[in-house]
Amino acid sequence: MTVASYLFVAACLFGIGLYGLLQRRSLVAMLIALELMLAAVSINVVALTTLAGRDGSLGQVVALILVGVAAAEAAIALSLFVAIHRARHTIDVEQLSELTG
Amino acid sequence: MSGPVLAAVLAQAAPLAACLTILIGLRARPRAAAGLATLSLVVALGATAYLVVVVAVPNVHWVAQTTWLPVADGPALAFGVFFDPLAATMSFVVAFITLAVMVYSLGYMAGDPGFARYFGFLALFAWAMLGLVLASNLLQVLVFWELVGLASFLLIGFWFEQSAPAAAARKAFLMTRVGDVGFLLGVLLLVRALGNATISDVVAAAGPAGVFSPRFTTTVALLLLMGVIGKSAQGPLFTWLPDAMEGPTPVSALLHSATMVAAGVFLVARLHGFFAAAPEVMRGLLWLALVTALATATMAMVAEDIKRVLAYSTISQLGYMLMALAAGSVTAGFFHLTTHAGFKALLFMASGIFIHHAHSNDMRVIATKQPRSQRAGVIGLVSGSLALAGVIPFSGYFSKEAVLTTLGQHAGTAALALAYLGAGLTAYYTFRMVFLTVGQGAAGRRAVGAVGDAVGSGQDHAPNAGDRAMASVVLVLSVLTLVLGYLGGWLGARLGHEGVEHGPFALGAGPLVALALVAAGIALAWVEFGRRGAARAGFAERVPALRDFFGDNWYVDRLYGATLVRWGTALSRAARWHDHTVLDGASDGVASGAVWGGRILARVQAGYVQAYVAVAISLIAALGVWLVRRGGLP
Predict the structure, then answer these.
(1) Is the CB of residue A7 less than 8 Å from the CB of residue A16?
(2) Which of B147, B224, B300, B449 fits a 20 to 30 Å CA distance from B194?
(3) Is A62 among the domain residues?
(4) Is 0.85 exceeded by the ipTM?
(5) CB contact (8 A) between residue B610 and residue A21
(6) By mean pLDDT, which of A3-17, B139-153, B267-281, B354-368 is the weakest?
């Protein structure tokens, strides 16, 4: 397995995540898509640090930190969604467009 | 500070303090304002009288000067006081006439809503003129010169809510400003050449031993004379003065005698040593003044408004003063300035009594309102007219004689003959005014009664108790017309004997010719206007063409109206179009462009999060592509 194959998987994951982020209208689905993109980034980090001539442990540490960040992000985002749902009774982004110019 | 310096400072500070106090704090208290202004002029009069005693009587000359704004490697600008008989005497005349006008105004202006403002402006006028007279430096002169112009603008336009006084004030200001441009340029040239503009240095530099080339002196003299011509209403710039009659009559008395128009003549006397170094300029000034004097005399012959007659006579007499100065005699010119200040202020104040009484400036209307019952007015008008006409032994005779003697010695026969002719015309128009105003008995009143009822313009004041103040001032000045004529020898001993060396009663051929012409002028006026059954129409008035030509300022104003005013108006219109269309259009275009652009850009912000994300990611992707193409990060 070469580094390129890891990168290919990451690119696929990123593309799927991006598609989901732009396509889905539910905030929860968009968050899931965002998590996919974040996972793609983690894979990239781990794969690319092996090219840097070290043993790759730096990348693994960064990936672990990213998992933590993603968890924190998910917690904050989900609580926001709950708050939005309480106020507006919807989490459809097309309904949430008051901030127009 | 020594005594004279203190007196000079006091003479200027008192009117200034009064002016500021009145205009800032006493606008609503007319009696206090009038009292304060009059008091300040009493102080100034005392201070200038002291100057006359310690400077003019012992005939000393010195300058007290201090540096103002020292500039490294630049002109050392200075200000100070010029102590010599000319400045001391002139400052006394200014203070005296202004005080007389103020006392007179207590009666004349009583009840006017702007009473306090009026006295504040009068004090401003006095300060400006005293500052100009006592200045030791031409830059200082320039400052006060403009202040004098400002004060006369404010006073001519005192009744600014009426359109005619406002227009007259604007005209006076703009017309004198034309000349002032030249004056400013002249002073700047002097500062550049000398490093300063101290009057004594300027005069010294222009003399035969001085540093100025004749060409430079001529140029600067011409430029300075532009200011003089504007200020003293000579040559082509005279038409503002007749219009200035729209101001209150006491203002005219002040404006025409010791301030404003006198400033130009005084400047020529002050800088006489400088101007004398440009003989061809002086020759031009002589002829300009002569033509002005004769032209305005003809205008005075047909005017119906008593104040216009006096205004034309002022221009004419200013011409005589400038002629004497141009011919080389400071004494004769300044002597005539002094006597003229006395009798012209008197004539205006006497006519003011009639105007006050008759509510009209028109001489034929005044004649219908029993003018002879105004005893002080009649005395003032007659004695002032005798002085203006130059009848022995009134003051005007002596000073005009000094002027004519000077012309005879230095100006050639042609100029002298024309000046004699002018003297005859002066006597004619002066007594035309006297006979038209107060010369008629009951028969004449009936004949013109219809005119009087039809014309009812003029000042609208009710008679009041201030009449006594007006009468007393007029009587004092009437006595002065008999006294001032003996000043000539005294002035001659201090300013040079040119023109007055023969003393006041030298009855040679010259005085006899002048007196004969004056007598002829008076006789003609009597035949046409004075005697019982006279036609009351002058020889010039019977020819319609002449009457229109003389009565319309020799069409000078029409010429200005058809050319300069029209061009100026066209230029203003073009400028307004440019301003409204091009400049305003450009800024409006920028504004509406911003609004329009904002509306377009606002559509992008639709509130759809996913659209924002799409844009952001496409931009990042584009950036990435560009970076890869470029070969990596910088």
Answers:
(1) no
(2) B147
(3) yes
(4) no
(5) yes
(6) B354-368
CATH number assigned to the domain comprising residue A36: 1.10.287.3510
In angstroms, rounded to a whole number, what is the distance separating the alpha carbons of residues B464 and B119?
Answer: 19
- DSSP labels, B301-363: HH--BHHHHHHHHHHHHHHHHHHHHHHT-HHHHHHHHHHHHHHHHHHHHHHHHHHHHHS--BH
Residue A101 to residue B601, Cβ atoms within 8 A: yes
Contacts of B40 (CB under 8 A, 6+ apart): B14, B15, B17, B18, B123, B126
Inter-chain residue contact B609 with A96, CB threshold 8 Å: yes
Band the pLDDT of B506: cuts 50, 70, 90: low
Q: Is B73 left (phi over 0), alpha (psi -120 to 50) or beta?
A: left
Test B608 with A21 for CB contact under 8 angstroms: no
**For residue B200, which of B82, B45, B54 has the smallest C-alpha distance?**
B82
Q: Is the dihedral of CA B559, B564, B565, B567 positive or negative?
A: positive
Determine which helix (DSSP H) or strand (DSSP E) holds B208, and give its type and residue range.
Answer: none
User: What's the pTM value of the predicted model, to 2 decimals?
Assistant: 0.78
> Which pair of tokens denotes residue B289?
């003044």
**Which of A18, A30, A99 lies closest to B607 in CB terms?**
A99
Residue A101, in any domain of the structure: no
User: What is the count of structural domains for chain A?
Assistant: 1
The CA distance from B530 to B536, in Å, is 8
Per-residue pLDDT band at B459 (split at 50, 70, 90): very low
Cα–Cα distance between B123 and B117 in angstroms, integer?
Answer: 10
> What is residue B136's DSSP assignment?
S
Whether residue A101 and residue B613 make contact (CB cut-off 8 A), yes or no, is no
Helix B249-257 / helix B306-327 crossing angle, nearest 10 deg: 10
Instruction: Search chain B and give the residue with CA nearest A99.
Output: B607
- Is A89 within a domain? yes
Q: What tokens does B487 get?
A: 């000043």
Q: CB neighbours of B75 closer than 8 A, spacing ≥ 6? A: B191, B192, B194, B195, B196, B197
Q: What's the gap in Å between the CA of A63 and the closest CA on chain B?
A: 23
For residue A55, the enclosing domain spans 3-95
Q: Which amino acid, one-letter code, is at A21? A: L
Q: Please say whether the dihedral angle defined by the alpha carbons of residues B426, B87, B221 and B555, taken in this order, is positive or negative.
A: negative
Residue A90 located in a structural domain:
yes
To which residue do tokens 């904002």 refer?
B598
- What does B262-296 look like in DSSP terms, one character per residue? HHHHHHHHHTHHHHHT-HHHHHHHHHHHHHHHHHH
Measured between CB atoms, which of B601, B602, B613 is closest to A22?
B613
Mutating which of B595, B599, B605, B609 best tests the A interface, going by the most A Cβ atoms within 10 A? Answer: B609
